[in-house]
Amino acid sequence: MKKKCMAALLAAAMAFGLAACGSSENSGPDGGTAAQQNMAGQESTASQEEPTTQETEVNIGETAADTEVDTQAERESILIAYFSIPEDIDTDGIDADAGASIVVKDEQVMGNLEYTANVIWQTVGGDLFRIETVEQYPLEHEALVDQAAEEQDADARPALAAQIENVGQYDTIFLGYPNWWGDMPMPLYTFLEEYDFSGKTIIPFTVHGGSGFSDTVSSIAELQPNAKVSEDGLSISRNSVADAEAEIISWAKGVVL
Q1: What is the pLDDT of residues 69-88, one digit of tens each?
Q2: Are 100 and 67 in the same domain?
Q3: Which of 30, 32, 205, 241 could form a disulfide with 234 if both were Cys (CB 3.0 to 4.6 A apart)?
Q4: Contact of 208 with 228, CB cutoff 8 Å
Q5: Per the domain annotation, does 25 fall within a domain?
Q6: Distance from C-alpha of 74 to C-alpha of 76, rounded to nearest angstrom
Q7: Radius of gyration over alpha carbons of the chain, in Å?
Q8: What pairs with residue 109 in β-bridges?
Q9: 3-class secondary-structure state, position 178
Q10: Are residues 177 and 57 in the same domain?
């Protein structure tokens, strides 16, 4: 009798255990246990989020690269053309000489426009091009100003000694020149008549003895009617060039970068 009762009790216990196991295995929609379902859900979420994160990282990297390329391309599309005649004077003990149109920096003697052009170039990059004539100008002050006046009276077009190989690669042209007798030096007229800057932006900068740009900006616009001639040019007194580095840098960044 006792054996039959024990057998019945064992059978009932086994049936209950099988029922409980069956209930647990059917708790998940995919047939897994609740614990397995939670783990699967976490893995699934991770597998969905991971590609998104990688894609974001790739996009960020591409954007940074594109920005770097664009910036480099912008710098390579800049031309800084300038005309500068540093007069021949004794530079001992001076930083700049108003009459001679020169700047002395770190014992290096440069013309006012040469110095200004170099500061612009160091700020925005691009290519430097010095506008030079076949016939050299006198370096003595009186002889230089006399020749400048004679060329204006004759409406001369002095021949240039060098040419720009591929002007089409440039979108922005910084154009620097001194103010001679209220006008651009005549080689600037030669330069502007030899090249077609249609669709490009011309940004003038000048060094003067008190006259600023005079009418030179409008003259540039007349010579290059299909170019955009900026009205935000830089005009510096020849007495201030040696101390104008910060001003030149700030201006150059403002008009290009």
Answers
A1: 346 666 789 999 999 998 88
A2: no
A3: 205
A4: no
A5: no
A6: 5
A7: 38
A8: 104
A9: strand
A10: no
In DSSP terms, which residues pair with 116 in a beta bridge? none
The Cβ of residue 33 has, within 10 Å, a number of other Cβ atoms equal to 13
- In sequence order, what are the beta bridge partners of 229? 202
Q: Which among 49, 75, 101 is the end of a domain?
A: 75
Are the C-beta atoms of 94 and 104 separated by less than 8 Å?
A: yes
Collect all residues with Cβ–Cβ distance below 8 Å to 201 and sequence separation of at least 6.
171, 172, 173, 227, 228, 229, 230
64 with 156, same domain: the answer is no
Q: Which amino acid is at 99?
A: G
Tokens of 27: 């708790």
Same domain, 58 and 83: no
Cβ atoms of 184 and 211 within 8 Å: the answer is no
Strands 96-97 and 102-105 turn out to be antiparallel
Please tell me the total count of domains within the chain. Answer: 2
Distance CA 109, CA 128 (A): 18
C-alpha span between 90 and 80 (Å, rounded): 29
Q: Which domain holds residue 144?
A: 77-256
For residue 170, give the nearest of 128, 209, 107, 212 by alpha carbon: 128
Q: Which amino acid is at 204?
A: P
Q: Looking up tokens 């830089």, which residue turns up?
A: 234
Q: Report the C-alpha gap between 212 and 234 in whole angstroms.
A: 9
Q: What is the pLDDT of residues 137-188, one digit of tens each?
A: 999 989 999 999 999 999 999 999 999 999 999 999 999 999 999 999 999 9
- Eight-class DSSP state of 98: T
- Considering the domain boundaries, does residue 48 fall inside one? yes
Query: 136 and 240 in one domain?
Result: yes
